[in-house]
Amino acid sequence: MDTRNTKVMNRFDVTSRLIAKLKNEEAVIGGIGNTNFDLWAAGHRPQNFYMLGSMGLAFPIALGVALAQPDRRVFALEGDGSLLMQLGTLSTIATLKPKNLTMIVMDNGIYQITGAQPTPAAGIADLVAIAAGSGLTNSSWAADEDDFERLIDEALEASGPSLIAARIDDKPGVGTTRRDPVQIRERFMHGLGVREPL
Amino acid sequence: MAIAEQHNSPAQASSDKASADTTWHGIILQTLKRNEISLVPYVPDRVLTPLIKSLHADPFFTTFATAREEEAVGIVSGAWMGGRRGAVLMQTSGFATLANVLASLAVPYQIPLIMFVSERGTLGEFNYGQSLVCRTMRPVLDSLALEHHTITRLDELEFIVDRSIKQAVTTQAPVALILNPLLTGGKVFDK
């Protein structure tokens, strides 16, 4: 991994940089574990959805939101271990070509939350190459924080799906999401304008 | 499927807008449409082929294959939260891959996940593995206390599907509609 031309960043920092750029009530789906913990820690927004299980489904859930609301930009944050569980969804998304979906992969090569065991892909597989090979031609590694922000700006204007991978360190998430699935779902639906509170 | 076409029952479920298509797949398509279910991802199954074909042929529907059934569950769950209704089509063996997503997404987040399961493994099954995996389906559904119906008769199909969709939406709970070979004809060894 040291041979790659990408800076090792921090998940919370990168997530905070993403959130700071969202000005139009964009939806954000946070994948299981540290990924949604750092989304939570970056500051709750009504358009955030936090996953408490279903490892690997952040991109499919985000795809569903994107198909339901084509005029809203949708972001999905997923860990490398989670993505490895559901690589087929990259092809599904490439086939459907939602114009409003951006996928962000946080790649530290480990299952940090379970004890930092290396993933089977660590140091051997290139997730951006896998995404490109799955048909997601607009897939990139973020070289550093500035490049990550530039790629987010591009994604906000893109006319097709984008995938951005960030190499991150082995730090755990900064916060802990409140594990209240009904409230998470209900607040998210309010945030998307689907429902009004009672 | 030839068998299914012979099942045209005189006691067609009460419908004020009687469809010309009284096949099982025609009734399901019309019932989905009437309930504004427009997003239908699936993992294909031989028996489901006529339904899948007619969904693709109808511009009302966004229908496509996914690589795994749980992926399709994630998609329709996201769509529901975004205000669009969906349903997932799969085979018995595909349902067997869903325990985790049912228990960690659909049930705890109270998502009206509508599943159509083409039932393999019974009434003439020729693949031992299919007959075994079929036996896991209802115990999994029952273990989560999920609503499920096994549909065997064409004259009950519209009623069960229509009422089950409405119940899923209003109670925000998943439902599995199991399409039995008595309804669809199933898949037999010589096909």
Automatic annotation (TrEMBL), chain A:
Give any single GO term for biological process. small molecule metabolic process
Would you tell me the protein name for this molecule?
Thiamine pyrophosphate enzyme TPP-binding domain-containing protein
Q: Where is the Thiamine pyrophosphate enzyme TPP-binding domain?
A: 38-165
Q: GO: which molecular function terms?
A: carboxy-lyase activity; magnesium ion binding; thiamine pyrophosphate binding
- Transmembrane stretches, by residue range? 49-68
Q: Which InterPro entries match?
A: Sulfopyruvate_deCO2ase_bsu (IPR022494), THDP-binding (IPR029061), TPP-bd_CS (IPR000399), TPP_dependent_decarboxylase (IPR051818), TPP_enzyme_TPP-bd (IPR011766)
Specify the superkingdom. Answer: Bacteria
Q: Do the record's keywords include Transport?
A: no
Q: Known Pfam families for this protein?
A: TPP_enzyme_C
- tRNA-binding keyword on record: no
Q: Which NCBIfam families did the record assign? A: PRK06163.1
Sorted keywords for this record are: Decarboxylase, Lyase, Membrane, Thiamine pyrophosphate, Transmembrane, Transmembrane helix
List the PANTHER family hit by this protein, alphabetically.
SULFOPYRUVATE DECARBOXYLASE, SULFOPYRUVATE DECARBOXYLASE SUBUNIT ALPHA
TrEMBL record, chain B:
Sample GO molecular function, one term: carboxy-lyase activity
Report the Pfam families cross-referenced here: TPP_enzyme_N
User: What Gene3D superfamilies would the database entry show?
Assistant: 3.40.50.970
UniProt cross-references to InterPro entries, sorted A to Z: THDP-binding, Thiamin_PyroP_enz_TPP-bd_dom, TPP_dependent_decarboxylase
- Where the record annotates domain Thiamine pyrophosphate enzyme N-terminal TPP-binding, the positions are 27-122
Q: Which key words tag this protein in UniProt?
A: Decarboxylase, Lyase
The name on file for this protein is Decarboxylase
